[in-house]
Design a protein that fits this description.
This protein is mainly β and 115 residues long. The protein has strands at 4-7, 10-12, 18-24, 34-39, 46-51, 57-59, 67-72, 77-82, 91-97, 109-113. The strands form 2 sheets. A 6-stranded mixed sheet has the order 2-10-9-4-5-6, with no helix packed on it. A hairpin with a 4-residue loop joins strand 7 and strand 8 (77-82). The N and C termini lie far apart (40 Å).
């Protein structure tokens, strides 16, 4: 079974940047399409970025041009580079398979964008 550990969140000012990491256990990681999800208070969890096993990416319109998802299969890690952050990006960020969730959720990492 795959375990997921998200890290890299924090408090940043609008316009700032963060890089999130999702470390996965298990040899199956390299054949999983992965994504980053976020959930803000009072809102449903949404998929914001996805990356296939071959490296193709897709982004929600709200983050397109600002976020970049990447993966390192040797390290069993998926990354989310977040630039030009906005207050509306504030949420707990999680990784999982995408677009269908198949793994147990990790603890997530809090991203707060505030001045």
């Amino acid at each position: 079974q795959v375990q997921l550990v998200e890290s890299g969140g924090g408090l940043v000012q609008p316009g700032g940047s963060l890089r999130l990491s999702c470390a996965a256990s298990g040899s199956i990681f390299s054949i999983l399409n992965m994504g980053w999800y976020r959930q803000a208070p009072g809102k449903q969890r949404e998929l914001v970025a996805a990356i296939t096993i071959s490296g193709s990416t897709n982004y929600a319109d709200s983050v397109k041009g600002r976020f970049t998802v990447s993966r390192d299969n040797a390290q069993k890690t998926v990354y989310l580079q977040m630039n030009t952050l906005k207050p509306e990006d504030t949420a707990v960020y999680y990784c999982n398979t995408a677009p269908t969730v198949r793994l147990t959720w990790g603890q997530g990492t809090q991203v707060t964008v505030s001045s």
